[in-house]
Amino acid sequence: MNKKYIVRLTTTERGILEALVTTGMGAARSLTHARILLKADCGIDGPAWTDDAIRAALDVSLPTIERVRRTFVCEGFAAVLQRKPRRPRKRKLDGHQEAQLIALACSTAPEGHKRWTLRLLADTLVELTELDGLAPETVRQTLKKTNSNHG
Q: What is the arithmetic mean of pLDDT over 104-126?
């Protein structure tokens, strides 16, 4: 089968990968990707293993092997060994809204309810603020950050 992404390592890249694998120091993901690249290398010093042989030897899936090949060819050597940075998540509640939630949770439950539930807190906070919606899980995580004791 013709490969779309052919791995050809330079002598320097091969040396770096071999040193990384030999020492065994590093993230498991980086070590696995290094082993995949070393086996898939079609350069002068490379063994040029097939994807099936790599899969059997390293116990990884074919999509993983294909993804490592593609990343190496398209994004470069460093991109294969390093994780992409996570995008920062936007906070659901600002400090003022968190304070409102905590004050609400510490107040008495509305009429007809024995105690506050996460869903009831979320719905009430949406009514009181300009939020479009709020999941009960967000309420739980926000209240968990505080050291309040309702018992």
A: 95
